Amino acid sequence: MEDNLFVGLPPPLAKPLTQPQDAETHTHKKLENRSTLPPPILKGGLKREKPTEPQREEVAPQKRLRFKMTVDASEKQVAEAMDKIASHIGTPSKFSKASKLALQLIQADSVKPETGHHFFAILEAAMSSKSACTEPALRADYHALFTAAQDVASGFSPQQKNQLSTWTIRAVVGNDLYTDDSFVFSKAAARVREAISSLPNASEDDDMEEAIALAKPGNREWDEHLENGSSMVSSPRKQDEFDPFGLDALLPSLSKKDEKARGKKDAAAKRSVEEEELKRSLKSTREALISCLEIAARRYNLPWAQTVIDILVKHAFDNVQRFTARQRDAIEKLWASIREKQTRRKQGKSTTGKLDMNAFEWLQEKYSNEKISIRHAVGGGGDRRAQQWLG
Predict the structure, then answer these.
(1) Burial of 237 by CB count in 10 Å (0-12 exposed, 13-18 middle, 19+ buried)?
(2) Is the pTM here over 0.85, yes or no?
């Protein structure tokens, strides 16, 4: 009999089962422990994540300076602004500021047919002095204003458009002749030649009117007419001027014969005004072109401009019949001066003491004395000294 201390004792009891609540708690703890484990590493998780930008703090919007390109103003306010600019733009010291205000009106599309005559008054006041547009300090502002005015010419009347074309010759083309850019200078000279070619021949009446104008320098009204181009012929009166008290309505209507005669009279008066306007426009255009010729001639000391000036003045001389008597005399003297300078350049008598000759004249002078042989100048100087050697 084995010595066993546990012999005769009942077998050990199994561990008692936990209560249902304890089992649920045990299960819940297992789930919590499992949730705390790190997630499994996926295949795409090995890639680096882009660092996120730090969130910027919201900053209060700051005020920015913005230029308003539109003018929220009534037609009356725009017209009043134009009239105010017109009252100041004729003063040279105020022209720069006033012209910039006028440019702002153009950029804001404020120049319309309803306000076109008000804006035309600005241009008219700016050109009240014909020499102001060529002042060195004002050239750029005049050039900018009258270049931009071309874009709003649709709001002007036909007479005003013709006047604007004349002012453009002075303020734009004339100022382009002051440039140091050879391309701009050549283009401006070409515009002057084109304008000269479009002029009609001057008539005896044009010469007579010019002589009368020169004979009356003390007549202030006549001087203003010549300078501003205002018509001396009265325009047809409006209907209310013929009948200021409205008495025509009480009288019997005119017969057809009287109406026809009155229509012819009005048509004749209208033609007379149009003819006078055409004469005035041609006179102003001729004077502007003469001014451009004088500006170009004063720049003859520039070697790169000499050929262009030669061609321009020669063209004016060939079309001298398109100008009045006094202007023809000025063009002839100008062409004589240019020819004298050409001769001095070819003879080397310029102020620098060197041969002042452009490229075209240099080549012309060189090849005018060359002897060209039928054997392609095989001998010295083109003669046939090598004929014996050639056999």
Answers:
(1) exposed
(2) no
